[in-house]
Design a protein that fits this description.
Elements (H helix, E strand, L loop, with lengths): L1 H43 L4 H15 L5 E2 L3 E4 L6 E11 L11 E11 L8
Length: 124
């Protein structure tokens, strides 16, 4: 019984660390998708592309957590009445503290969200 416990304990610890690593990735992915969705929603109600870009940056910065490393949101699409705009956000998932199982230091998570612009609006 003692031999089985000695042999299985490292396997169980490695499996637990893999579950924690996958949980971190899934949690950050959900947060990044929510951030990009909120940023594109904020950008879609602005009148100019410059205002939309600034609103997207402010939206992402307001919700950014200190343990997450994200780049600036990238605004794309066509900013005209009836057009569609997109916001792409890229963040890093840190695996620090989980080095026992040989995972790399971090993984990149990218999310893109799109929103239509109202066809009856004035854009500047």
């Amino acid at each position: 019984m003692a031999v089985e416990l000695v042999l299985l304990t490292p396997v169980l610890v490695a499996f637990t660390l893999l579950v924690v690593a996958f949980g971190r990735y899934v949690a950050v992915r959900g947060e990044v998708e929510a951030l990009s969705r909120d940023a594109v929603r904020e950008a879609s109600v602005r009148r100019t592309a410059a205002e939309a870009r600034a609103a997207a940056v402010v939206s992402v910065d307001a919700a950014r957590k200190p343990q997450r490393t994200c780049g600036a949101p990238v605004l794309g699409g066509v900013f005209v009445a009836g057009g569609t705009i997109t916001v792409t956000l890229t963040c890093e998932v840190s695996y620090s503290g989980l080095g026992l199982i040989g995972l790399p230091g971090s993984a990149t998570v990218r999310a893109t969200s799109a929103a239509p612009l109202d066809t009856l609006r004035r854009v500047g």
